[in-house]
Amino acid sequence: MNMDLIYGDEIGLVSVVLRLFLATLFGYIVGINREKKRRGAGTRTHALVCMSACLVMITSEYIALTFPNYSGDVARLGAQVISGMGFIGAGTIIITKYNHVRGLTTAASLWATACLGLTLGAGFISAGITATLLMIFLLITVEKLDKTIKKNSVVHDYFIVFDGMEGFSRFLTELKDAGIKINNIEINRNKSDDETVVIITLETRINLAEYMLELECRDSIKIMNEL
After folding, report:
1. Which helix (H) or strand (E) holds 53?
2. Who's near 116: CB < 8 A, 6+ residues apart?
3. 137 closest CA partner among 107, 156, 101, 112
């Protein structure tokens, strides 16, 4: 790749097109993982964020080169992108009625994609490629590693919704009979529909995933997810 097309004293058409194309492509690639998981921000959102951030950075460079006597700080445009991404990122974070938080990884990937766009817009292509590879590694490979670590861990966090306190009491009795240690428990009872919402930390060396599926009080559990 001819670096003169990217770096130089002037912003040429080829340089601008190349930077915007790479930003759109890399943003799209990062968004594939979120798209597969049916998250609110998928490929198009990530591609648009990355391309737009790149455009802002190119515009900053254009201002600096076109108006050499400009007294303002051209880096402020890029800084506003980084801080402004909190607005879009917050829109992807969902707190369910059971106080279960979702969307943090999507929000983080959007913010990182905006930073990636700024990097590519500045013409720092090698850093942009490296960052994209690391982002894909974190979103895909590390996720599988996290699942393996959780699977082999003796400590497990569960989010459980019972149809009432009676089912929850039966659940605690079964845990005690099985010799499963309870490290922490948070209870939130919804009086309007008589639901009992529990976030519980359990410690055991038995296969807890299989045990949870064979609970005698399973019929009283409306929702159960491992956190």
Report:
1. helix 43-66
2. 23, 26, 27, 30, 50, 53, 128, 131, 132, 135
3. 112
Rg (CA), the chain: 24
Q: How many CB atoms lie within 10 A of CB 123?
A: 22
Do residues 216 and 173 touch, judged by C-beta distance below 8 A?
no
Q: What is the pLDDT of residues 108-148, one digit of tens each?
A: 888 999 999 999 998 889 999 999 999 988 888 877 777 77
Structure token pair of residue 61: 């460079």
Amino acid, res. 198: V
Cα distance between residue 117 and residue 27, in whole Å? 8
**3-state DSSP assignment of residue 111:** helix
The Cα 198–Cα 177 span in angstroms is: 19
Read off the amino acid at residue 123: G
Long-range contacts of 65-72 (CB under 8 A, 24+ apart): 65/9, 65/10, 65/11
In the chain, DSSP assigns E strands to 94-95, 101-102, 155-162, 181-190, 195-203, 221-226
Chain segment 3-25, per-residue pLDDT in tens: 444 444 457 888 899 999 999 99
